[in-house]
């Protein structure tokens, strides 16, 4: 059930650029990196050096990581 919801959200995110006439092949990479950044921020690993971050900041960091990849 969890993997199905992820695929649905990913396909909805891909639908908007397709309607606009663009084809984005980086959606899978964006989802993977955003997930890794969110988990490492919430657990306090990697760049956060043992300092777990609040959920809203983890989500914002994941979105920013996804934007950086898409540029």
Helix proportion: over 70%
The end-to-end span amounts to 32 Å
Q: Which sheet architecture does the biggest sheet show?
A: none
What is the beta-strand fraction?
under 5%
How many strands appear in the DSSP assignment?
A: 0
Strand/helix succession: HHH
Tally of helical segments: 3
Gyration radius from CA atoms, angstroms: 14 Å
Structural class: mainly alpha
TL;DR?
73% of the residues lie in helices and 0% in strands. By secondary structure, it is mainly α. The longest helix is centred in the first third of the chain and has 19 residues, at 2-20.
Give structural notes.
The chain is mainly α and 71 residues long. Helices cover 73% and strands 0% of the residues. The chain has 3 helices and no strands. The protein has helices at residues 2-20, 27-43, 55-70. Helix 2 runs antiparallel to helix 3. The model has no long low-confidence stretch (mean pLDDT 83).
Provide tags for this entry.
0% strand, 73% helix, 71 residues
Secondary-structure map:
Layout: H1 2-20, H2 27-43, H3 55-70
């Amino acid at each position: 059930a969890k993997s199905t919801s992820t695929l649905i959200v990913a396909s909805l995110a891909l639908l908007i650029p397709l309607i606009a006439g663009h084809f984005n092949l980086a959606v899978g990479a964006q989802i993977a990196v955003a997930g890794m950044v969110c988990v490492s921020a919430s657990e306090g690993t990697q760049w956060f050096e043992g300092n777990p971050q609040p959920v809203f900041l983890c989500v914002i960091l994941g979105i920013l990581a996804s934007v950086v990849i898409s540029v």
